[in-house]
Amino acid sequence: MINKKGQGLSTSTIVLIILAVAVLVILILGFSIGWSKFLPFLQSNNVDTIKNACGVACSTGSVYDFCTVQREVNDGTNDKFKDSCYNLTTKVEYASRGYGIETCTTVNCPVA
Fold first, then answer.
1. Three-class SS of residue 109?
2. Residue extents of the structural domains in the chain
3. Which residues, at least 6 apart from 79, have a Cβ–Cβ distance to it below 8 Å?
4. How does pLDDT run across 70-98, given as a tens digit for each residue?
């Protein structure tokens, strides 16, 4: 009984434990500080979301939402920028980008 050895952990078990801890740390960081800050490259664009939001603002006749609310546009190719639905539909520089946001005839935006 002098040379009795205890059972050791195999290499694959140690690797699996390390991987599990790494995944747990990534999940904790992602949920605590936010996925957009932790992995900003995951979201490539939000043009469809803004297109739908502008369509809803137009169909409900919401002057404030269509004319004033600044929406952060991330199209995946250009730098992020903020602008209103009205400006996204009327400015020439945005028309060439092909966002597909239609002009709204039911909302009259006041001229600043």
1. coil
2. 1-40, 47-95
3. none
4. 998 888 777 888 999 998 888 888 877 78
